[in-house]
Amino acid sequence: MKRIDVAYSLITDKDKTKILMVKNHKNGTWSLPGGGVEENETLDAAAIREAKEETGYDIKVHGVVAINEAILTKHDEHVVFITFRAEIIGGQQEITRPTEISHVEWVDIDRADEFMPYYQEGLKNIAKNEIEIKYFNEGKV
Q: What is the C-alpha to C-alpha distance for residues 114 and 119, in angstroms, rounded to an integer?
């Protein structure tokens, strides 16, 4: 069984009324900006890279707000989804990979759970809650 790590970024507007989401071109589903962690890439670096590639924004990641996992027996994969709280620090909204992402939108926080119902507490509650697990990238040793 192949293990896949996915790093997501939960980015809200300053009032925490909207969440930045992307619509995936391949399957038409909405998600948080994020994607697979590449070989020799750290979790935080993957979240930063994926957010830039999918939204055009430069971000800073903070702590982990959720960890989900799924065993996809159909694909013989074990996927672990790590969701960071993040903030925009630069860039501008644009779709740089139109073959992967068809839309980038600020989704009303009350609708976000309709798009991503996988979070037991709900994206709305996670976004409004200030609790996060500290993340430390200890670098290469």
A: 11
